[in-house]
Structure formats: C-alpha cells, structure tokens
Amino acid sequence: MSIDQFKFSPIPPEAEAVRAEVRRFLAEALADYPPTRRAESWMGFDAGFSRRLGERGWIGMALPKRYGGADASPFVRYVVVEELLAAGAPVSAHWFADRQSGPQILHYGTDAQKAFHLPAICRGERFFCIGMSEPNSGSDLASIRTSARRVGDKWVVNGQKVWTTNAHRSHYMIALVRTDPDSKRNEGLSQFIIDLSLPGITIRPIKDLTGASHFNEVFFDGLTLDADALIGTEGQGWAQVTAELAFERSGPERFLSSIALLETLIAEVGRQPDALQAKEIGRLTARLFTLRQMSLAVTAQLAAGRNPAWEASVVKDLGTSFEQEIPELAQLLLDVAPTTRGSSEHARVLAYLTQEAPSFSLRGGTREILRGIIARGLGMR
After folding, report:
1. Of 22-26, 146-150, 220-224, 306-310, minimum mean pLDDT range
2. Is the per-residue pLDDT at 7 higher than 60?
3. Angle at 209 between CA 208 and CA 214, to 5 degrees
4. The pLDDT of residue 2
5. Is the pLDDT of residue 1 over 60?
6. CA-to-CA distance for 174 and 334, rounded, in angstroms?
7. Which pLDDT score, from 0 to 100, does residue 139 have?
8. Cα separation of 178 and 213, whole Å?
9. Distance, CA of 381 to CA of 378 (rounded, Å)
10. What whole-number distance in Å separates Cα of residue 280 and Cα of residue 286?
C-alpha cells in the first residue's frame, strides 16, 4: 500500500454534465431555505424532498436500470451528492439507503430482496438505517454481542444497537449480528434486513445538544425473522460490512458537514478581510480542495471494483478534523458569539455547528479506530 494511491482523479465529462441540472433544481427547490436549515447538511430529514429526488432519478443512480436505477457511474452519483450537500439540501431520509443499503443489497442480496427493496429505494419511498454500533462496542464492531439464533426455519434476535441514525423514521435496518455463539471477534457474524415494524423491536430516540433526535437506541427482544431476512452468506458479515464502510467513510459528506458555516463566515468577513482572516480562510479552502481530490480518488477505486478501506478511513479522519475546526476558527476570526436567539444568521449557524461538531469524529468510526485501520493499510502494524 502507498499513499500514492490518492492520485488525481478528474470527474469524467459525462458525470460533470449533470451538475448544471442539479444546481437549477436546487436553486428553485431551496430558494427560501435559510442558512440554519442548510447547516443540518446530510442530517436534514424531508421525506417529500427525497421523493422529488427519486422522481428525477437522483437516488440509487448507480443501481441497474431494471431496479429503477440509471446504471450511472459512481462519479455521476458523486456530482449529485456534492451539489446536494453544498446547498445544504435535506437528504437524510434516503441517505443510508442510497449510499450503503442499496449497493449492499445489490451485491449480496437474493433476487427477491433486490426486486422488493431496490425499486422503492430508487423512488425515494423506502428508508434504511444501519445497525452496527452497540453499547460497550462503539466503533469496535468485532466486539458486538447482539445475537441471532436459528429456531426451526426462523431466526430469533436479541440484543441492542445504539447511535442508530434515523431508526425512528426508517422502514428497514441492515443489522450486523452474531450468528455463531462460540465465535470470537470478527468471525461468526452475519447481516440481516430487518423490518422495523415487526413486534419485538423498541426504538428510543436520543436527543443531542441541539435538541434534535437523529440518533436512537434500538432493542431486539425475541425478534423473529424469516430465513429470507439474511442478506449474503451466513458467517460472512464482517467481509460484507467492511466493504460497506468504504462507501460510508469516503464521500463528500465527510468534509462538507460544516460548509454552511464556512459560507456565512466568508459573508460576514466580507471582501476586505484582515491578514489573519485571509490566511485562515485561504487555508481552509486549500484543505477543502485537497480533501475533495482524496475523496474522488477513493471514488475511482470504488468504480474500479476495489475495496479502499484504509484510504476511505484517511478521508474520514482528515475530513472530520477539518469539519470540526471550522466552528473554532469562526470564533477566532470574528467577534461573534454562537447563539440560537441572535438576529445574525452566522451566529445561529455557528451555535448549531459548535454543538453538532463533536459528533462528526464519532459517526462512522472513531478517530482512534480509523487510525488503526490506516496504520495497517500503510504496513505500520
């Protein structure tokens, strides 16, 4: 492995051609969208907006046409996602289904699972959440304890997931559970597609510092699943989930979560910044462009059918550090206090992202776990 794998990856012309249409749509659809709403970035939930994107063919774009997709390259999807996030569009409703669950079902699902789920995902009508983290496990997925055991031709699931984004608003979950009770660490794990309307499931939203409830605890108490809920091969859940994490950790969402604040900061500073303001905003801009090129390099590897697990971890680690630094620098560069009640839009966006930013380095894997993956990829451990 070499860091040279992050070579420049230009967006192909056929993908870049989509950008203008997306921008026109967003200019109309979000004309009255305030900066405080845009600051929610990919955590903003609007089922109606997701359906509008589905009608335009902008969800599940890389999925086959026979399932409602467009057979588009990952670069086309990248352009659409980049524009949505840069505009602060509310994409959370369909986000996990589009980014992870759809490709996961396409690669590992049965024909029946593909036919049932993928068209609804592409229409923006079926929402998924991801059941990975657990109490006392966090980013160390290999230590999970939620179990699924065979009882006749059924599976019975018991355990708990936590920090599950949008579980209270989703229709289905793809969960990683332990199907071999005698297995250790990353062995004996499997994935299941779980209908969240089934009995035996309790979902409890968790409020964050902003008062929002994106995260949830999910309890499985004797949940009974049919045999066809298993996705992929029993016991191969670890290989499946690590491939999935490359999609989760490498996209533009890993460096655009604070972009609304960078925009209000630049607007507040104006056209005549002092020396410190000019230097720091210039430094943030340079880092933003570098992270984008790294993210595109990972997209190129995904397009080539590779599993760039450690490269994706680099993007997430550096990207979330960048996102978390913006609220700190905003307070350094301007004498504006973060407040939810002030008249300044910049102050309100600053307040929201100051409270939200600590979670950026937790969701999708903590910094410590990611750096272990990176060290392994570079042959350092």
Report:
1. 306-310
2. no
3. 25
4. 40
5. no
6. 44
7. 62
8. 28
9. 8
10. 10
8 pLDDT above the threshold of 70: no
DSSP 95-129: HHIIIIIHHHHHHH--HHHHHHHHHHHHTT---EE
Q: Render pLDDT for 168-213 as a digit per residue (tens, 0 to 9).
A: 999 999 999 999 888 888 889 999 999 999 999 999 999 877 777 8
Q: Which residue has the tokens 């670890």?
A: 238
Q: What is the Cα–Cα distance from 365 to 249, expressed in whole angstroms?
A: 8
Q: Give the predicted TM-score (pTM) of the model.
A: 0.87
Residue corresponding to tokens 């939200």: 356
Distances (CA, A) of 234 to 76, 277, 372: 33, 55, 27
Closest CA to 52 of 16, 20, 89: 89
Please give the Cα distance from 114 to 12 (Å, whole number). Answer: 29
Tell me which residue has tokens 């100051």.
Answer: 354
DSSP letters for 196-207: TTSTTEEEEEE-
* Main-chain dihedrals φ then ψ at residue 263, nearest 5 degrees: -70, -45
The alpha carbons of the chain give a radius of gyration, in whole angstroms, of 21
